[in-house]
Design brief:
By secondary structure, the protein is an all-alpha fold. It contains four helices and no strands. The N and C termini lie far apart (43 Å). 4% of the residues are buried.
Length: 112
């Protein structure tokens, strides 16, 4: 095996072992799901900051908007479920991105 795949192999093994390690530590499977979701969000921010050197406040804004949409929809419309609030959050953030993107694309220049 080449050295360039060693890091990928270690990450894959760590993700496969993570639920069992957390279960042995007394934490539920939900904790491992949260860890992976936050790791994906952090990797996206890391790629953005690493390649451009710019901190993206929008990255956190969309993530937070989706979290609020999922939490409020679960509380008021879909109590006890997780799939429907998750799907609602995806569509809500997509609609918000469509509306804000339509406004942003009409502007000219760089405003960062």
């Amino acid at each position: 095996m080449r050295d360039e795949y060693a890091t990928l192999l270690i990450a894959a093994i760590a993700l496969a072992v993570l639920p069992f390690a957390l279960d042995a530590a007394g934490l539920p499977l939900r904790t491992s799901i949260d860890v992976v979701v936050f790791a994906i969000a952090c990797m996206g921010l890391n790629v953005l900051v690493g390649y451009t050197g710019l901190v993206s406040f929008g990255h956190g804004a969309w993530f937070g908007l989706g979290a609020y949409a999922a939490a409020l929809s679960q509380r008021y419309w879909f109590p006890g479920g997780i799939i429907l609030p998750f799907l609602f959050a995806i569509f809500f953030v997509a609609a918000a991105a469509l509306l804000s993107g339509a406004l942003i694309l009409r502007r000219r220049g760089v405003y960062f």
